[in-house]
């Protein structure tokens, strides 16, 4: 009688055949394994890229901060130029800096420019804790603004101030040498001071005198020409 039918594959082969259907199952399993490996590799690459991006951003921030600190340090090393707040003439710079006095609101310099004139009339200091100090008043050579004092004689405890120039902070302005973004004279302040106005008015008066002299010579020449014409 008929026995148990052998299992056949889709092509009609008996069970245990070596046809290609068995290979298809193996290929499907291998493909799934490769896809899984590719997915894991892709996730690993994404994680590595994220870490690299984060490290790059941190390095960029660190470089920016380092550059900012270096720029700030360079700005601090640049010398200050002190100007008269009345006419903007240079009075000195921080290369001759000695100290600052917060109690008297002034700075002490070893030397000043030729724009600082010294009144030779000496007087005793009336400031607290400066008994016995002999001072000479400092003025701006351009606008005669009172700038401060120079110490000529001092008691023993104030010997470090002797022959130092004490400039009042209220009478001076300053800017950092080499800072192109800063203006020495602000736009809202008047550019011409009293001295420059006097010089301009003097020049205009001289020009007016020259014009009058030329007009007089022209009038004389016209008179002579007219007289010669009438005579002929």
From TrEMBL:
Pfam families for this protein: Yippee-Mis18
GO cellular component, one term: chromosome, centromeric region
Localization per Swiss-Prot or TrEMBL: Chromosome, Centromere; Nucleus
GO annotation, biological process: cell division; CENP-A containing chromatin assembly; chromosome segregation; pericentric heterochromatin organization; protein localization to chromosome, centromeric region
Alphabetic keyword roster: Cell cycle, Cell division, Centromere, Chromosome, Coiled coil, Isopeptide bond, Metal-binding, Mitosis, Nucleus, Phosphoprotein, Ubl conjugation, Zinc
Cross-referenced InterPro entries: Mis18 (IPR034752), Yippee/Mis18/Cereblon (IPR004910)
Signal peptide: none
Domain Mis18: 79-177
PROSITE patterns to which the protein is assigned, alphabetical: MIS18 (PS51793)
Coiled-coil annotated spans: 197-224
GO molecular function per UniProt: identical protein binding; metal ion binding; protein-macromolecule adaptor activity
Database matches in PANTHER family: NEUROGENIC PROTEIN MASTERMIND (PTHR16431), PROTEIN MIS18-ALPHA (PTHR16431:SF2)
Subunit structure: Homodimer, and heterodimer with OIP5/MIS18B. Identified in a complex containing MIS18A, OIP5/MIS18B, MIS18BP1, RBBP7 and RBBP4.
The protein's role, per its UniProt record: Required for recruitment of CENPA to centromeres and normal chromosome segregation during mitosis.
Protein name: Protein Mis18-alpha
Protein encoded by which gene: MIS18A
């Amino acid at each position: 009688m008929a026995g148990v039918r052998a299992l056949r594959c889709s092509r009609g082969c008996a069970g245990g055949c070596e046809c290609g259907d068995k290979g298809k199952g193996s290929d499907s399993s291998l493909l799934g394994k490769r896809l899984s490996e590719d997915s894991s590799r892709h996730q690993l690459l994404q994680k590595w890229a994220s870490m690299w991006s984060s490290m790059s951003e941190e390095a960029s921030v660190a470089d920016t901060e380092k550059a900012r600190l270096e720029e700030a340090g360079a700005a601090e090393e640049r010398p200050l130029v002190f100007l008269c707040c009345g006419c903007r003439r240079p009075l000195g710079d921080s290369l001759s800096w000695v100290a600052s006095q917060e109690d008297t609101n002034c700075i002490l310099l070893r030397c000043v420019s030729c724009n600082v004139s010294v009144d030779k009339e000496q007087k005793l200091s009336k400031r607290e804790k400066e008994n016995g100090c002999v001072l000479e008043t400092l003025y701006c050579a351009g606008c005669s603004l009172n700038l401060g004092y120079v110490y000529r004689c001092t008691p023993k405890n104030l010997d470090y101030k002797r022959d130092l120039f004490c400039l009042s902070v209220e009478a001076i302005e300053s800017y950092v040498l080499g800072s192109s973004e800063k203006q020495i004279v602000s736009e809202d302040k008047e550019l011409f001071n009293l001295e420059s106005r006097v010089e301009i008015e003097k020049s205009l008066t001289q020009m007016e005198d020259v014009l009058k002299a030329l007009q007089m010579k022209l009038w004389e020449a016209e008179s002579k020409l007219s007289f010669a014409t009438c005579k002929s």
